[in-house]
Automatic annotation (TrEMBL):
Domain of life: Bacteria
The UniProt record lists the keyword Cell membrane: no
Keyword annotations: Membrane, Transmembrane, Transmembrane helix
Biased composition (Basic and acidic residues): 12-21
Stretches the record annotates as Disordered: 1-21
Protein source organism: Kribbella turkmenica
Spans traversing the lipid bilayer: 26-49, 158-178, 190-211, 217-239, 246-263, 303-326
Protein's recorded name: ABC transporter permease
Organismal lineage: Bacteria, Bacillati, Actinomycetota, Actinomycetes, Propionibacteriales
Length: 343
C-alpha cells in the first residue's frame, strides 16, 4: 500500500540499484578490442608474411656427383630451403611424389633436365620449383612437368584453400548454437554428429561438383570434411560441458587463431615459420587440409597421419563430453541438497 502511495516500485529501491553489475569503462573496452584486433592480425598475417621454404622434401635423380652439386646449389640459393633425397631415376622420383614423400623432383639429364612438380599437393611449392627450373641450366632451361596437377576448373587451388575457414566456422557454429538451443547433452552430441555428416556432404558437393576443386571419390572427400567438423564441434561441446562458456571460448580461439592460419593450406606446412607448420598439422584444420589433398588427388597416399589426428580429436571430444556428463550428474544432486537445506 505504501508503495502505491509513494509511487515507488521495488525495482527502483537503493538495494536493487546496488545489485546492478558495474560495466567496465569505455577505455577498458576499447583497449580489449584493440588487443583482440592485434592478435587477429598477428595470427593470420604473420604466417603468410614469413612464408618461405624450410626443409621442403625434394627428390633429385641422377649421378651421385651431379646430385651433390644440385644440392649445394639449392643450399646456396635458398639456405635450409630443401631436404634432398637422392633417387635412382625418373620413375622413382614420380613414385615419391605420388606417395607424398616429396613435393617435387629434379631429374638430371645431360641433354635437358626436368623438374617435376605436384601443384595438387602444394601450388606454392610447385611455383617455387618452376622458378628453379630456369636456374638449373641458364643455357637450356629445364623442362617442367606437373605430375599431379590441380583440376582444370580450379587451377590455382583456391577452393580448397578457402575451404579451411568454413570447416572451422562450421564446427564452432555448431557447438555454439547447440549449447544455446539444446538442453540435453546427449542430443547436443547427436546434433553435432548429424550436422557434421550433412555439412560434409554439402561442402564436398559444392567444392567438387560446382567449383571443381576436388577430384576422386565424393564420399571420401565428404567423409574427411565430416570428420573434421565433428572433431571440432564435439571438442568444443565437451569443453563447454566441462568448463562452461569459458571452455567454449578457449576452444574456439585455438581452432580459429591457431588451427586456421597454421593449416598450411595456402602454401605448405614446411613453409611456415619455425615449427609452427608441424603444430598446425596436429590441429583439425591442418590435418583436414592435408587429408583432403591426399584423398582427392593422391588416391589416399599420405592420409593416414592426418586421419589419425582427426580421429584423436574426435575421441578427445567424446571423452570431454563424457567428463562433462559425469560432472553434471554430481552438480545437480549437490544443488538439490543445497536447496533442501535452505527450505
Amino acid at each position: 500500500m505504501s508503495e502505491q502511495l509513494t509511487g515507488r516500485h521495488p525495482a527502483h529501491t537503493p538495494e536493487h540499484a546496488a545489485e546492478t553489475p558495474r560495466r567496465p569503462p569505455v577505455l577498458v573496452v576499447v583497449t580489449l578490442l584493440t588487443v583482440l584486433l592485434t592478435v587477429l592480425l598477428i595470427a593470420f598475417a604473420w604466417p603468410a608474411a614469413r612464408s618461405e621454404p624450410r626443409d621442403l622434401p625434394l627428390a633429385v635423380a641422377g649421378p651421385a656427383q651431379a646430385v651433390a652439386q644440385v644440392e649445394q646449389g639449392l643450399e646456396h640459393a635458398m639456405p635450409g630451403g630443401f631436404e634432398v633425397t637422392a633417387v635412382p631415376d625418373r620413375a622413382a622420383a614420380v613414385q615419391k611424389i605420388e606417395d607424398r614423400d616429396v613435393y617435387g623432383a629434379i631429374v638430371l639429364d645431360p641433354r635437358q633436365s626436368e623438374v617435376l612438380t605436384a601443384s595438387a599437393g602444394a601450388p606454392a611449392v610447385a611455383q617455387i620449383l618452376t622458378q628453379l627450373a630456369s636456374r638449373l641450366s641458364p643455357e637450356a632451361p629445364a623442362k617442367v612437368t606437373d605430375v599431379v596437377p590441380l583440376p582444370a576448373d580450379d587451377p590455382r587451388g583456391a577452393g580448397l584453400a578457402a575451404g579451411a575457414l568454413p570447416l572451422v566456422l562450421g564446427g564452432i557454429a555448431a557447438a555454439a548454437l547447440l549449447t544455446q538451443l539444446v538442453r540435453s547433452g546427449t542430443k547436443r552430441m547427436v546434433g553435432a554428429v548429424t550436422f557434421a555428416i550433412t555439412g560434409g556432404l554439402a561442402l564436398a558437393a559444392v567444392l567438387q561438383f560446382w567449383l571443381g576443386s576436388f577430384e576422386g571419390s565424393y564420399l571420401a572427400n565428404s567423409g574427411v570434411i565430416a570428420l573434421s567438423i565433428a572433431a571440432v564441434s564435439l571438442t568444443l561441446l565437451g569443453l563447454e560441458w566441462l568448463l562452461g562458456q569459458a571452455g567454449l571460448a578457449l576452444g574456439a580461439a585455438v581452432m580459429m587463431l591457431l588451427g586456421n592460419p597454421l593449416s598450411g593450406l595456402t602454401s605448405a606446412p614446411e613453409m611456415l615459420p619455425g615449427g609452427w607448420g608441424a603444430l598446425g598439422q596436429l590441429l583439425p584444420p591442418g590435418a583436414a587440409g592435408t587429408a583432403l589433398r591426399s584423398v582427392s588427388f593422391f588416391d589416399g597416399a599420405g592420409a593416414a597421419g592426418p586421419l589419425v589426428v582427426l580421429g584423436s580429436w574426435l575421441l578427445a571430444g567424446l571423452v570431454l563430453c563424457g567428463l562433462g556428463a559425469v560432472r553434471s550428474r554430481r552438480v545437480v544432486p549437490a544443488r538439490q541438497e543445497a536447496g533442501f537445506a535452505t527450505v
